[in-house]
Amino acid sequence: MPRTSPRQRRQPLSPERIYRAALALIEENGADDLSMRKLAGALGVDAMSLYHHVENKQALLQGVFQTVQEELVLPEPMPADWKEALRQLGQGFHQLAQRYPRVFPPMITSPWGTEREREIFHYIQRALHKAGVAEQDMPRATSALYTFGIGMANVAANGLRLRPLYGEPEPVNEASAHGTSDTDAQFSIEMMLAGIESLVSEGRH
């Protein structure tokens, strides 16, 4: 468990400090192991003092997810080429998952959204408008793109390989997993862009 110095313990509590400490604990031991008691211990405070800033564990996790998602850069102004805009977004997801591999699984399966997710959705919609995606396809296309992007980032970050057509995935050791996952992630991003082009092309016929 991360230790705090006397100086750190004297720092006033704030939501940002709480979320960062919780994020560190999740990356160390996983989200299932996180508790208010352990978080308070890491911060050097009484557990009850946390409830002045976060209502419960659900609110705590949402704050952690928001904190992580805020590190995802949404380039502004958006690149003129919609493919480059979405390519950078996909690469950003991949880098974020590499940075926080243990927070990604609970984040992408959480039923509760964040304000930052809405901003990311809006950014994707703007890029899809540039691509020429039809309005009636926009909600499904945006949701599919977001889900696919964060899902593949999670697969890559956690050292998994794309499952073969038949049989079990080959074991991947730590040394080889990173290179393979990077290749898989880039391939997936380009496949995603090709799929959008196909959707737009079919809609114009």
TrEMBL record:
One Pfam family it belongs to: TetR_N
Swiss-Prot/TrEMBL keywords: DNA-binding, Transcription, Transcription regulation
BP-aspect Gene Ontology terms: negative regulation of DNA-templated transcription; response to antibiotic
DNA-binding region: 35-54
Ranges for domain HTH tetR-type: 12-72
Membrane-spanning residues: none
MF-aspect GO terms: DNA-binding transcription factor activity; transcription cis-regulatory region binding
Domain of life: Bacteria
InterPro entries for the chain: Homeodomain-like_sf, HTH-type_TetR-like_transc_reg, HTH_TetR, Tet_transcr_reg_TetR, Tet_transcr_reg_TetR-rel_C_sf
Function in brief: TetR is the repressor of the tetracycline resistance element; its N-terminal region forms a helix-turn-helix structure and binds DNA. Binding of tetracycline to TetR reduces the repressor affinity for the tetracycline resistance gene (tetA) promoter operator sites.
Name the UniProt record assigns to this protein: Transcriptional regulator, TetR family
Organism: Marinobacter segnicrescens
